Amino acid sequence: MDAGHEETSVSRSRSSRALQIERTLSAASNVVGKAQENLFSRLARVIARRPVFTILLCLAVFLACIPGMLLLDGSENMFGFIKIMTNFLETFTFTTTEEYRDYMRATSMFPDTRTVAFIAKPSNGHSLVSFDVLRQMHKAEVHIKDTMRFESVAGRQLGFGDVCERFTSGSPCLAGSAVSTLLGDAARLSELEGLQNSSLANVASWMIAAMGMEQRASLPLLIASPLTFPGPGATELLLSQWLLASTAAMSTFTVMNTEDGVLFEKQAAKDINNNGYPENTVVRINQFSSSTIAMESVQIGMDNVPLIALTLLLMSGYVVLMLGTDTRIPGNSQVKLLLGATCIPGLSGLSSFGLLGYFGQGMSVLGTMVPFLGLAVGVDVIFLMVSSVNAVGPDVKDMEEVLVRALPRGGMAATTTTLTSVCAFTIAAATSTDLPGFLSFNIGLVMVLLLNWMGMLVMFPAMICLSQRNMTAREEPTSGLAVQARMVMGCGRKLRNVMNSKLGYAVENSLPFQICGASVWLVLTILAIYFGLQVGKGMPDTYFVTDSSKVHAYLEDVENSFVGSVPMELGLVFDAPKVLDASYRSRMSELVATLNNRSDLALPVSCWLHSAVSMLSSSASMCEVDTAILTYLNDTVTGTASARDARGGIADHLQAARCRAFIWQPTDSEKRSEQALNIIRQVKDGFPELRAIPYHLSFPAQTARYRIIKEKTFSTAGFAFLGVFLAVLITMPVHLAFLAVGNVMAVTCVLFGFMWACNITCNVISYCVCVMAIGFCVDYSCHIVHFADHGVAPGTPWDKRMRHSLEACSFDVLQGCCTAFLGVAMLGFGSAQAFRIFALLAVMITLVGGFFALVGLPCLLALIARMLRACMGSEIVPEAVPKDEAEPKALKDDLQDIQNFQDMELSVNGFAV
User: Fold this and answer.
1) For residue 83, what is the enclosing H or E element?
2) Measuring CA to CA, which residue among 291, 418, 348, 399 is closest to residue 44?
3) Which residues form the SSD domain (predicted)?
4) Which of 132, 252, 291, 634 has the fewest CB neighbours in a 10 Å radius?
5) The domain containing residue 110 runs over which residues?
6) In this structure, are residues 119 and 250 in contact, taking their beta carbons and an 8 Å threshold?
7) 3-state DSSP call for residue 638?
């Protein structure tokens, strides 16, 4: 008995402390609410007294930000003057991964190269070994190597040979020619033409017979065949049979990663696409270069601009349709006012880019979505402000008094939703600084939201003041076009009346409606949690490629020709090699042997350092080691190729040495990631004393992102939820904060479930949408729970609170969903798959977020309230008392303490009665 009494006392003590915390947090939110009311009341008086000055001041702020767009950091020009970040390492690569650090360390010693590659695929039954096919390929190769010219940074006309001559003899400026590999000398094309009447088997044998061992060894890197390569030492018959089965050939041109190298690469890629030989009846030639994805990003950004303009027009039309005649004083319209208001989010989008430039940030292709989202979120406040002004009524004639009453109501709601969205995107930016493209995306959204908040709560009220200052009641027109126009623009008012009279009533009184709404909320959430955890990861390379790009044909040809894998040149850097140490040389030999035994090896490892010192005895002196290295580097055959793979002096002074291996890299993301991790573990974990660094651009740009993207998505969402919850606590009581954030979490769970159902993986795009879902949907939920508490007497049951809230803001929340839908829907017409996926996911969260806020959560709370009253057997409904008349002394009453205690117990479970 004593133990039970003690447990009860402890339970009451804990509940008392929890209740005290809840009271403290609620009191703090009330203080913040009062401070906001005072601030907006004073702001309203300033705006009403000087509306023109207020508008001009806001315009000056917007216009002062826009020139900063010229300062944006980036690697490519969009429209010739806006810089955009396009480098994969700048935009889509996590910079804190081990793969990224290894790549940067290796390329700091041996600068990376840029490559133009084209793949030639015979068509109409032609064979790769035929004269017509090789002649077309030779034509393309000659144009790039000898004919093509481009304007250098210094303004001179240069070609491939000129770019090569600008570097030291040790710099890689290479051309991998499929024609030269097959014929040995392009002059033999005339001999091949004379063999046109011979069988293809004879032609293939003729080619193989003239090849040296080095040419034969490079065949699988340049020629695609469905047969397994028999090896350079195989018989001529086997090699000719392999060559006859070949389906495509590839030629590559490699230069150093310099400004002139980039210009050469772009010109070569352009010429391959535009000079006539990419498409003919004999062979199809498609190219891919290091700048291809970069240029595709620029094109996508340019394609998005007209979509932004179209979105702005649609948004303006929709706002006019819904609110054109929804004025405080009957008989009037506000078309000009609304058209001006919808320009504010557009100005905010441009100004946000300018602020990014002033802050020294860059904009990636993801940043081109910021104006869409700015319009989607920003226009919501128009409905809030118009609703708040209209709530004042026509009896108040003084516009200063109208704004003093309206601005605190609309401003507090807009501030709460803006604050939570800003918090979500700020947390997302802070937790993703290692992904520069996503960082700039989130910072841009924060800027848009803040600038839009300023415009909507300062500039828009001033515009309302000017619009309604001399407005008087008018008679409704009875004939003509004006009647039809007012009927069309009266849709919003009719919809508002229907929602106010029907939705709130159904939520409060209809048990079937409550059951249906709550069931949908619960079932969707539970199923989404189960299936959402099974979402895959990875992103095809074509997501950021325009639909009309020839890259699709190139990647398709590569995939079909090389049968799921492509040759990849793996770099292997030995950092400060201790070649004087016999055990080091021995371990190096073991590593080379281990790599040569890999099943995915295309060619044996080429390692000049191993070749130079592997034959030395274990007791070799420093002089012998130095002599071996010098002899190898000075050899006329081996030295030219090896000089560019050495840094520093010899022996103990050798700073680094690079070796190379050609690996068959899978095109499938999962297999590619597994292979990269296997290579890294094999080299770094298996031979840690060698300090060897295996690297390739795909390791940081693709495999590392694939490895961590799912965990980053969930962790970033978790931090965003926490930040939003803390932000909501500032302006709302704790139980309301739990409700708002809980509803947003349910929407986010449904997002992951929808991704699983549509086979959409965790990738850079869904990573953005996940955080955007939190920033979007928290607005809807905050509106609903805010008005469930604003102006409602303490102790009011939640079914009645939900009816009050829906009557107060359901129309505004619905319009927020509709404008968000319009804001992102145009991305569905984007020129790249990534943006269409973004639009699909964004539309889904908009629809689900609106349904959960307007129907799901209200029905759930109303049903729980009904069930609790049924369990208690009675219902006490207090009279409606304005919230500001409820004195704190009421908390001292025993009955109120009991009610608050019950409220607190239920709020712990995520809802309150």
Assistant:
1) strand 82-84
2) 399
3) 304-466
4) 634
5) 99-290
6) yes
7) coil
- 326 and 260 in one domain? no
Residues 570 and 635 both lie in one domain: yes
- Judgement on whether residues 680 and 792 belong to the same structural domain of the protein: no
695 shares its domain with 710: no
- Averaged pLDDT, groups of 10, the chain, 913 residues long: 53 62 68 83 93 95 93 86 83 89 92 85 86 88 88 87 55 67 82 84 90 85 86 89 90 83 87 65 84 86 89 89 83 87 91 92 87 85 88 87 90 83 85 86 91 94 90 70 68 79 89 93 94 88 85 84 83 91 92 93 86 86 83 62 69 80 88 93 94 93 89 88 82 82 92 93 88 80 81 82 88 84 87 90 90 93 88 54 40 40 37 31
How many Å apart are CA 587 and CA 836, to the nearest integer? Answer: 51
- Residue type for position 664: W
* Interaxial angle between packed helices 669-680 and 98-109, expressed in degrees from 0 to 180 and rounded to the nearest 10: 70
This prediction's pTM? 0.81
Residue 474: inside a domain, yes or no?
A: no
Distance CA 794, CA 806 (A): 18
Q: Say whether both 598 and 666 belong to one domain.
A: yes
* Residues 528 and 558 both lie in one domain: no
Which amino acid is present at 250? Answer: M
Per DSSP, the three-state class of 450 is helix
Asked if residue 624 lies in contact with residue 582, where contact means CB atoms within 8 angstroms, the answer is no
Alpha-helical regions (H) of 143-258: 160-165, 178-183, 189-194, 200-209, 213-222, 236-244
Q: Are residues 172 and 165 in contact, defined by beta-carbon separation less than 8 angstroms?
A: no
HSE, side-chain direction, 13 A CA sphere, residue 898? 3
Measure the CA–CA gap between 911 and 278, rounded to whole angstroms.
65
3-state secondary structure of 854: helix
831 Cβ contact list (under 8 Å, min separation 6): 299, 300, 303, 546, 547, 548
Site of tokens 């991790």? 677
254 Cβ contact list (under 8 Å, min separation 6): 113, 114, 115, 172, 173, 174, 175, 176
Domain C-terminal end among 666, 699, 732: 699
Cα separation, 806 vs 255, whole angstroms: 65
Co-location of 349 and 275 in the same domain:
no
HSE at residue 394, side-chain half, CA atoms within 13 A, is 12
- Total number of domains constituting the chain: 3
426-to-33, 392, 542, 730 alpha-carbon distances in Å:
23, 35, 30, 16
